[in-house]
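Section handout, structural biology tutorial.
Before the tutorial, make sure you can parse a SMILES string by hand: atoms, branches in parentheses, ring closures as digits. In the record below the ligand is flavin mononucleotide, and the chain has 412 residues. In the tutorial you will relate the predicted structure tokens back to the input. Do not try to memorize them.
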Amino acid sequence: MQGRRILLVIGGGIAAYKSLDLIRRLRDRGASVRCILTAGAQHFITPLAASALSGQRTHTDLFDREDEADIGHIKLARDADVIVVAPATANLMSKMATGGADDLASTVLLATTLPILVAPAMNVRMWQHPATRRNLATLRADGVHVAGPNDGAMAEAEFGPGRMAEPTEIADAVERVLAAAADRHESGARGGVLSGLRVLVTSGPTHEPIDPVRYIANRSSGRQGHAIAAAAAAAGAEVTLVSGPVSLPDPPGVRTIHVESAREMLAAVEAALPADIAIFAAAVADWRSATEAGQKLKKDGNAPPPLQLALNPDILATIAHRAEGRPPLVVGFAAETENVVEHARQKLARKGCDLIVANDVSPGTGVMGGERNSVQLVTSANVETWPTMTKEQVAGKLVARLGEIAKGRGRA
Ligand SMILES: Cc1cc2nc3c(=O)[nH]c(=O)nc-3n(C[C@H](O)[C@H](O)[C@H](O)COP(=O)(O)O)c2cc1C
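Predicted structure of the complex:
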């Protein structure tokens, strides 16, 4: 991150002391750091310490006459490559999620178009509170990047998620955000194959609840869909990823919406439209439990409870058959264990999509959950068989092909 400019907003949490170390680590990697301290932060560390470590004046007051004449909150919101909020308090996250702007930190965060990375830190109960969960989901949907928090011991002799990520982890996350922003910028500047297009991607499995602790799922890891979202963003697209439950980090530079079930995924996809290209890579459960028990099902003698299944919505077909607002290019995935191409052809016709990426997920292939993929691209006109590649390479090649198709159709 040599020469990159970082605006570090330090919130009023006990982890503020770790942000002093973060300043050093970012500077060690070649970045320059300017700090804003909230009033809360100044109960934990001083502006003097932040200035001494950053080598720059630290800003604290929205109505500072000297600052407003000299730098000003709008200039602060513009003159950096990335804004890092660490620790991101529950309060700061709430203000960011609702557009509050009642001090210098929140006003700058509202007045900026820069990429933002937050490193939340708070008591485990604050972190798990429904209000914080809602705020976090809103921030993610707004494209804010999130690092941590980690599990661990807390200041209040408690244990759980809420501990701020370590300074090196935050610095690594800043590097990833900067790299993604640079990719997008470069791609836009050289007219990346998808630049100016809105791309919607689904990824991962869905979880269909049976009761509060049990669910129906499948072995999808989300690696292929996440790689496609990252490749589309690197090709200059504005990407929304609707992800089922996966253990992968959100791809940088991608607006990521997290869902659990097929019905939630369909609702998120419909809310994310319009799009120029929609790529449905998620392994959506075909069926869900017809009933969802409010309490954990109990063993009742020896007889297992009957599990009645109900059909889930077909997300690909629903979107591909939309009379209004159908994305001009709709791509489906077909995971098959036999007669791959034949089944893909039938699926193409039945679902009404433009292209099917077919893959053989028979147990011996290691595709489900694995790192490599062997795919065939099926259109109504022909079938292309691609050699076995990593899922990232498949994503790159697919994005390049979609770029060609979009160009051929006059940019979708
Ligand atoms: C000792 C102490 C520790 C605190 N630690 C945290 C914390 O880790 N995370 C958090 O969200 N709030 C924490 N708070 C509460 C915040 O300081 C409070 O919500 C404050 O209004 C945050 O202001 P800010 O978001 O403008 O920095 C703590 C308060 C005290 C007194």
